[in-house]
Specification:
The chain has about 120 residues and is of the alpha/beta class. The chain is built from 5 helices and 5 strands, in the order αββαβαβααβ. The longest helix has 11 residues, at about 30-40.
């Protein structure tokens, strides 16, 4: 009898797995302040291996990228998503990661939709 083989998917649909927050609407300054208030990003390092919220790009850098490289950059408003990671040790998230066999960086992925008005 031949043993069935399973393959690990090469690509994870992060957007389907990610926890999504509601939309933040406002000016660049007000949205940035709210993002930093809701999700204070910390640096992930050897001394702080499990920060509550972390990202490889600051929210300020993400907003600047959104405003400068978005196809709607000339519009009255620009919308997009900010991303960050959240440390979540809940049994539900742990079970989902186990069931789907996905890496920690994917299971911790979070998105925040924003709409910036000029």
């Amino acid at each position: 009898m031949e043993t069935p083989t399973t393959t690990k998917p090469e690509f994870y649909d992060v957007m389907a797995i990610a926890k999504t927050a509601t939309v933040l609407v406002g000016s660049y300054k007000s949205v940035l302040e709210k993002l930093n208030e809701l999700y204070p990003l910390e640096v992930k390092s050897k001394t702080n291996p499990t920060p509550k919220f972390y990202s490889d790009m600051t929210f300020e850098a993400q907003l600047n990228k959104l405003l400068n490289y978005n196809k709607y950059k000339s519009s009255h408003f620009v919308y997009g998503i900010m991303y960050y990671h959240q440390t979540d040790s809940s049994p539900e998230r742990a079970q989902m990661a186990k069931d789907m066999n996905i890496p920690e960086t994917v299971v911790s992925y979070r998105i925040q939709r924003v709409e910036l008005h000029r």
